[in-house]
């Protein structure tokens, strides 16, 4: 089955470019488009895409609020990749904190766009881990840091779970973590699932943000 994608951007040329890049791949299908975040929820419910590629800045409802709305109101929501012009943008970090699974630069090369969609759909690796670390260092605030520290303390991760979280934060995939720890990939998947459950995290990105904001991992 192909990875299905919904494109959301207020610039028709951006949507056309993304569609051309993604539909050139035999394993990716663009199932719909929207010009604003306000149209996302009905389209997600109708089309059930695997991934939503969504502009972070739009005139009526931006990508941050649209991400929150999708995750709050849609059962079994899709993965969300926010599209941005600038990498070190506070809007991007807020979108990640809101629940987006990663971000993609508008100037990205076609191969990077395709890789990002596939990676987020699989959910077994972190997209641009170095950039997530830099965003946490720049835009993490004291209130968020205090909440993250309290969350991590309540989680009571085991030693192995903490080790897995560190490797996740460095951007390693399940297979790479398995090789590093000399265990099977199914064992790693179990540890990752336990970490996400204990942290109440929707995905790896949310768990890694908690790791950085809490001080468990040093952002710089």
Automatic annotation (TrEMBL):
Short name of one Pfam family: GerE
Keyword entries, A-Z: DNA-binding, Phosphoprotein, Transcription, Transcription regulation
Residue list for modification 4-aspartylphosphate: 55
InterPro entries the UniProt entry points to: CheY-like_superfamily, NreC/VraR/RcsB-like_REC, Sig_transdc_resp-reg_C-effctor, Sig_transdc_resp-reg_receiver, Tscrpt_reg_LuxR_C, WalR-like
Gene Ontology MF terms in the entry: DNA binding
Domain Response regulatory stretches: 4-121
Domain spans labelled HTH luxR-type: 150-215
CDD domains: LuxR_C_like, REC_NarL-like
GO BP of this protein: phosphorelay signal transduction system; regulation of DNA-templated transcription
Record flagged with keyword DNA-binding: yes
Protein's UniProt name: LuxR family transcriptional regulator
Organism: Streptomyces curacoi
């Amino acid at each position: 089955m192909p990875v299905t994608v919904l494109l959301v951007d207020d610039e028709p040329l951006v949507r056309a470019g993304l569609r051309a890049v993604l539909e050139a791949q035999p394993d990716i299908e663009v199932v719909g488009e929207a010009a604003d975040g306000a149209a996302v929820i009905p389209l997600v419910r109708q089309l059930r895409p695997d991934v939503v590629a969504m502009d972070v800045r739009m005139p009526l409802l931006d990508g941050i609020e649209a991400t929150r709305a999708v995750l709050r109101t849609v059962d079994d929501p899709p993965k969300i990749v926010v599209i941005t012009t600038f990498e070190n943008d506070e809007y991007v970090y807020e979108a990640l904190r809101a629940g987006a699974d990663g971000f993609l630069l508008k100037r990205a090369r076609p191969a990077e766009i395709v890789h990002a969609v596939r990676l987020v759909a699989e959910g077994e690796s972190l997209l641009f881990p170095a950039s997530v670390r830099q965003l946490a260092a720049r835009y993490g605030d004291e209130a968020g840091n205090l909440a993250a520290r309290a969350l991590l303390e309540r989680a009571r991760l085991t030693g192995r779970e903490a080790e897995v979280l560190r490797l996740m934060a460095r951007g390693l995939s399940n297979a790479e973590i398995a090789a590093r720890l000399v265990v099977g990939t199914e064992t790693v998947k179990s540890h990752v699932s336990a970490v996400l459950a204990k942290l109440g995290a929707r995905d790896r990105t949310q768990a890694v943000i908690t790791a950085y904001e809490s001080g468990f991992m040093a952002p710089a």
